[in-house]
Amino acid sequence: MAKSQLKITLGSYSIKGIKERNEDFLGALIPEGAQLTHKGIAIAIADGMSGSDAGHEASHCCVVSFLSDYYSTPDSWSVKKAGQQILSATNSWLYSQGQQKYQSSKGMVSTLSILVLKSTTAHMFHIGDSRIYRLRRGNLEQMSRDHRVWVSEDKSYLNRAMGIEPRLEVDYKGFPLEKGDVFFMSTDGVHDFIAEKTLKTFLQSADSFDTVAKKIVQHASDNNSDDNLSCQIFRVDEIPLAKDDELLRQYANLPFPPLLNVGMVLDGYRIEEELHASKRTQIYRAFDTKTNTQVILKTPSVLYEDDTQYIEHFLHEEWAGRRLEHKHVLKVLASDRVKSCIYYTTEFIEGQTLREWMDTHPKPYIREIRVIVKQIVSGVRAFHRMEMLHQDLKPENIMINKEGVVKIIDFGSVKIAGITDMTPLEQSDENILGTLNYTAPEYHLGERGSIKSDLYSLAVISYEMINGALPFGGDMPEKPNRINLAKLKYVPSFQKNSMVPVWIDGALKKGCSISPQGRYEALSEFLYDLSTPNSIFLKDTADIPLIERNPLKFWKGVSAFLLLGNLFLLYLLAT
Questions:
Q1: Are 23 and 56 in contact (CB under 8 A)?
Q2: How does pLDDT run across 127-147, given as a tens digit for each residue?
Q3: Whole-angstrom Cα distance, residue 383 to residue 406?
Q4: Neighbours of 65 (CB within 10 A)
Q5: Residue closest to 509 by CA, chosen among 485, 537, 545
Q6: Which of 60, 185, 251, 328 would staple 232 via disulfide (CB 3.0–4.6 Å)?
Q7: H or E element at residue 546
Q8: Exposed/middle/buried for 20, CB within 10 Å: 0-12, 13-18, 19+?
Q9: What would the pLDDT profile of 49-84 be if each residue is shown by its tens digit?
């Protein structure tokens, strides 16, 4: 007897109605194979808030981001955990964009209602006043609750929505599925203009769901709906046997991988070489026998096999990487194969680390450095656009392939806005985040990081490429507290490399400022000042003594003066 799988029949319809633009958005994703078993089916509907500056963009982002990011989360995460973390990150991004682009809390705001069907359970995530109904054995029930406050008979406002507040409060509910359940999802332009009795009649008709959805929308329109009109309908046709749920629970507790040796094959990946091993992770070059390609396989250390925080951190690392698609960021590979243990794979980059490049280019041209820095900035921006901070930029975490393309390769310290448990594995005085010499000082002081924190790390890297040294004369103090940090003095580039123009050193000094307030506001400003003389830095150098500004020129001048003085004395003695 064939094993039953989750199956649904789906229909939908959406029109702009009397509005100039349709700010509703809906979507669904029905995967196949392992993802259907381990992630399930996701259906979502969103309604950009009336009065929002970018309601359409907000609703589109809510639906598309969830349908994309949900299937990138680790299979071992629960639906609730995955959904809440994705929505928290999306909400933070919407709020940030609304503030930056529109200077308003109503910049990018949308309602959002989601159903994830996994195994024999429906998982509902809901915020706003779009709705979810369930028709079961002739009974129609509203499963969601409206987050709308009425101040009078004809005046109301949304008190909860995506993007309206920096902190998200979303309704979650899980309930068992039954074969034959019919679910109806709609925006207020539909359900506010149709009686539940009439809706129930439509849902029980024998027409196709696309036809039913169109009829429901038309009925609401005929009842003078004054908004966009959108709805989705689906019926649960098959659900898995209950024993499949036991398999899912086992999968959620995958073991750590065994010790991998060259020649071993793990889930179709043949191990070819161990590239790196530390107390936290092992990294291997492997050959994917299914795709005939070279890949990198990263595994957790068995030292942390019973450490749930470590395991969660490792899974976060994979998820953060999957959310990024950019030329200058390492690509974390998705796979539909069932994993036998905890690991993840990335693209294989044939090339060298930036540290290796620096070792072989002790005196590079400034133009070469600019090309590299520009690519790093492009990659870091990809993190920042997704409301992520990298937090561990250093030469060892940057690769340059054989074509000269730069890629950021590590996600071990990435922090995603809106997710409180995206913290590093180890938190100690010696190494709070990232690597001591490249970590922004504010992290050592227990302060929150920002875009300026990644900029600091980039400025230190740039200084080191240009001058072959670190900007404060050596390694950072072992315990970088406020007292030790206050003692640090920036070493001007001309003391290390007399060929560095003062305006480039000015850019480096500002980027390496111990205080975040002293740094650039944006990566683009730092990049611009590395390429274009800033008159402010040229003026600042006028007050610097020549012995500091150009020691070689100073001592040459002193020597010339002494020589002339000696010649003059000889002349006097001779006359």
A1: yes
A2: 999 999 999 999 999 999 999
A3: 15
A4: 21
A5: 537
A6: 185
A7: helix 546-549
A8: exposed
A9: 877 778 899 999 999 999 999 998 877 688 998 999
- Please tell me the distance from the alpha carbon of residue 457 to that of residue 511, in angstroms, as a whole number: 9
Distance of CA 243 to CAs 3, 127, 249, 250, 300, Å?
10, 33, 10, 11, 30
Q: How confident is the model at residue 117, as a pLDDT?
A: 96
Reduced to 3 states (helix: H, G, I; strand: E, B; else coil), residue 147 is coil
Residue 560: alpha-carbon gap to chain centroid: 59
Amino acid at 185: M
Query: Domains of the chain by range and CATH?
Result: 7-248 (3.60.40.10), 254-347 (3.30.200.20), 351-544 (1.10.510.10)
The kind and range of the H/E element at 73 are none
> What residues are paired with 235 via a beta bridge?
9, 182
Amino acid at 563: L
At residue 245, the 3 state secondary structure works out as: helix
The amino acid sitting at 71 is Y
Among all chains, which residue has been given the structure tokens 């194969």?
337
pLDDT above 90: percentage of residues in the chain: 60
Of 263-277, 366-380, 465-479, minimum mean pLDDT range: 465-479
d(CA 82, CA 176): 19
Integer Cα distance of 298 and 60 in angstroms: 34
What tokens appear for 388 in the block? 């992520």
CB atoms within 10 A of CB 27: 17
Residue indicated by tokens 């070819």: 272
Query: Exposure pattern of 318-329 as b/e (b: 16+ CB <10 Å)?
Result: bbbbbbbebebb
Q: How far apart are CA 547 and CA 492, in angstroms?
A: 12
Give me Rg for the CA atoms of the chain.
30
Phi-psi region of 564 (alpha: psi -120 to 50; beta: other; left: phi over 0): alpha
User: For 105-259, where are the alpha helices, taking DSSP H only?
Assistant: 188-191, 196-203, 209-222, 243-251
Q: Sign of the C-alpha dihedral, residues 284, 289, 290, 293?
A: positive
